[in-house]
Amino acid sequence: MIGVIYWSGTGNTAAMAEAVGKGIAAAGQDVVVKSVSDVTVDEAAAFDKLALGCADMGAEQLEDMEFEPFYNELEGKLSGKKVVLFGSYGWGGTWLDDWAERVKAAGGEIVADNVAILGAPDDDGNTQCEAQGKALAEA
Ligand SMILES: Cc1cc2nc3c(=O)[nH]c(=O)nc-3n(C[C@H](O)[C@H](O)[C@H](O)COP(=O)(O)O)c2cc1C
């Protein structure tokens, strides 16, 4: 079972999460797609493979009220896990690079390129998300 866990304020990253989940399912793996509001850190840490998504917020940061505290706690449990990162941004788009460094420093393995999409995913964006999900499933 692979977990896709995301934070999304206006739905763009949520749409990406669904596409990542679709790619995982298409690769023949079971998948759960959940908003961070609907999952505990322990539930998230039970997955060996995780696709984590968060919109670019603050100033090139993770959303700070809900996702950052969640991720901060999960970070200590990422060692040995296979991880991919995705999210939507508005004008910058560097937050995923910083986040990937955090994952690696925590001992997580980033197994596919980050997928950052400006605004809502179009057909090409959905294809990128599905490919990321497939790569995680096959990693
Ligand atoms: C409070 C706030 C802060 C934001 N900060 C950034 C930012 O630092 N860099 C950026 O590229 N986009 C920023 N954005 C734009 C969002 O990342 C963008 O609208 C994105 O598509 C939202 O995705 P969502 O629909 O999943 O919430 C910000 C948006 C809000 C509301």
From TrEMBL:
Its cofactor is FMN. The keyword Ribosomal protein does not apply. InterPro entries: Flav_short, Flavodoxin/NO_synth, Flavodoxin_CS, Flavoprotein-like_sf. Keywords: Electron transport, Flavoprotein, FMN, Transport. Residues 2-139 form the Flavodoxin-like domain. Belongs to the flavodoxin family. Low-potential electron donor to a number of redox enzymes. This is Flavodoxin. It comes from Veillonella magna. The lineage of its organism: Bacteria, Bacillati, Bacillota, Negativicutes, Veillonellales.
